[in-house]
Amino acid sequence: MNFLTGSILSAARYLFAIVGINLILCFNVFAGDIVIWGDSQDNYPIQEKMVQLILSAKPSAIFRVGDMVSNGHDLEQWSQFKRINKPLLEKFDYFPAFGNHEAGSPTYFDIFPSLGAQHWYSVDRENIHVIVLDSNLDIKPGSEQYQWLVTDLQRSKEKATLTIVLCHHPLFNVGIHMDDEKGLRPILLPLFKQYDVRAVFSGHDHHYERFEYAGIQFIVTGGGGAGLYPQMRKSPYLKKLRIARHICVLRPEKHGLLINIIDIDGNIIETIKVLSDKQGH
Questions:
Q1: Alpha-carbon gap, residue 175 to 68, rounded angstroms
Q2: Which parts of the chain have pLDDT scores under 50?
Q3: Looking at the DSSP assignment, which residues form a beta bridge with residue 37?
Q4: What is the pTM of this model?
Q5: Measured on CA atoms in the order 264, 270, 275, 279, is the torsion positive or negative?
Q6: Measured between alpha carbons, how far is residue 109 from residues 1, 97, 234 in Å?
Q7: Can you tell me the distance from the alpha carbon of 99 to that of 136, in angstroms, rounded to the nearest whole number?
Q8: What sign does the dihedral 27-29-31-32 (CA atoms) show?
Q9: Contacts of 226 (CB under 8 A, 6+ apart)
Q10: Neighbours of 78 (CB within 10 A)
């Protein structure tokens, strides 16, 4: 099955909100699918193909899980990023997360001034609450980011049907990087279970991985253009692995999310149904 022959999207308007520590920004955009992708770095020809794939999906919004460039302090790389992503930046709302290769660069916020210099924030879209974290910074209990996350999860549980989280470093992975490199599992898993987070999207490993743990989908979507990585180990929680460049296309539905994983040629790697009710798993 090929995704490029795909869907007709709704043009209904809805409210988009970014919620930061002291910041709320609202956007009126067209309702439709959401694209999540990561780790493009400096492979420009592949990035250009990925951008064309995303344009064909006609999303309402785009989220990145980090490593949009190889060196966040190289202005030429950001210039290339803006050139290649110009059609996406002009047409769609574009929400990034910091990766390790952005290296805390201030240029990141020059490219995305609407973030108001927030390293972590959340976005509401229809019945979906999207939390974007900075896994490069302290997120241990007692830290500013942790305290913000708990407060945001509490609020989202009251108002949102379904919550997903984005951060660059994965909680589960079987690629060349150390498993749970940042030690996030003991910190974040209890919160994700307590507040019914339904899916977590990360990058860092340059391929597609999907794990399931405690009824939560953990998706590594690092196949955005950077050199692909092999599988290095096994995991009892691994449900799918594909060494391929790809994007994730999320379609909000009445009772959850339909997620299509699409390779660079427009072929569907797999389709995942994420329900807002854990009993659906």
A1: 19
A2: 1-30, 279-281
A3: 64
A4: 0.88
A5: negative
A6: 39, 11, 38
A7: 7
A8: negative
A9: 39, 40, 41, 42, 43, 67, 70, 206
A10: 20
Structure tokens at 160: 């949102």
In the numeric block, the tokens 């909000």 are attached to 252
Q: How far apart are CA 107 and CA 165, in angstroms?
A: 24
Show the tokens assigned to 18: 């970014």
Contact between residue 164 and residue 130 where contact means Cβ atoms under 8 Å apart: yes
pLDDT in tens, 57-105: 999 999 999 999 999 999 999 999 999 999 999 999 999 999 999 989 9
> At which residue do the structure tokens 């694209």 appear?
35
Residue 255 CA to residue 150 CA, distance in Å, equals 24
Token pair for 250 = 């999320």
Distance CA 60, CA 228 (A): 28
Residue 11 DSSP one-character state:
-
Are 123 and 250 in contact by the 8 Å Cβ rule? The answer is no
Domains of the chain, first to last: 13-280 (3.60.21.10)
CB neighbourhood size of 253 (10 A): 15
